[in-house]
């Protein structure tokens, strides 16, 4: 199922068409990004059997890893119109803000990472999570506009 829209630019004829990526491709990209979030956290933790210290941080990593797999599965299911995108947004937002907090104000039991912005695994994680959040916000807004929501978007005048 490929969606297309016609965009006519000034000075172009009526035959000017711009193809929009199919929703299935966007779901696949989202699922791969969600799995990438999981993979980065497994690598940061030192492997599947390793466990970060303090314990609450190790369990947080486990939650992110399992959440990434579940989000990827949800995105690939055809019946989940907005649920997978909402899960992807949460999956990206949680670790992103956690990493920023760990580098700025520090986390309880883990003050050693404050100011450690040069950690390459963390940088890769930030890029992947930001890409996932941007994709999910875009898809949620598109879904909201397509569904004919009775409420207008907050920044649009009625």
Describe this entry's structure for a reader.
The protein has 158 residues and is mainly α. Helices cover 59% and strands 4% of the residues. The chain contains 4 helices and 2 strands. It has helices spanning 23-45, 55-76, 83-104, 120-146; strands spanning 4-6, 17-19. A two-stranded antiparallel sheet has the order 1-2. The longest helix is centred in the C-terminal third of the chain and has 27 residues, at 120-146. The radius of gyration is 19 Å and the shape is elongated. The model has no long low-confidence stretch (mean pLDDT 82).
Quick summary:
The chain has 158 residues and is mainly alpha-helical. It has helices at 23-45, 55-76, 83-104, 120-146, and strands spanning 4-6, 17-19. α1 (23-45) runs antiparallel to α2.
Strand content: under 5%
Strand order, sheet with most strands: 1-2
Total helical segments = 4
Mean pLDDT: 82
**Major beta-sheet overview:** 2 strands, antiparallel
The structure class reads mainly alpha
Span between termini: 32 Å
Report the helical percentage. 55-70%
Question: Radius of gyration from the CA trace?
Answer: 19 Å
H and E string: EEHHHH
Note the overall shape: elongated
Name the poorly predicted regions: none
Number of strands: 2
Structural domain count = 1
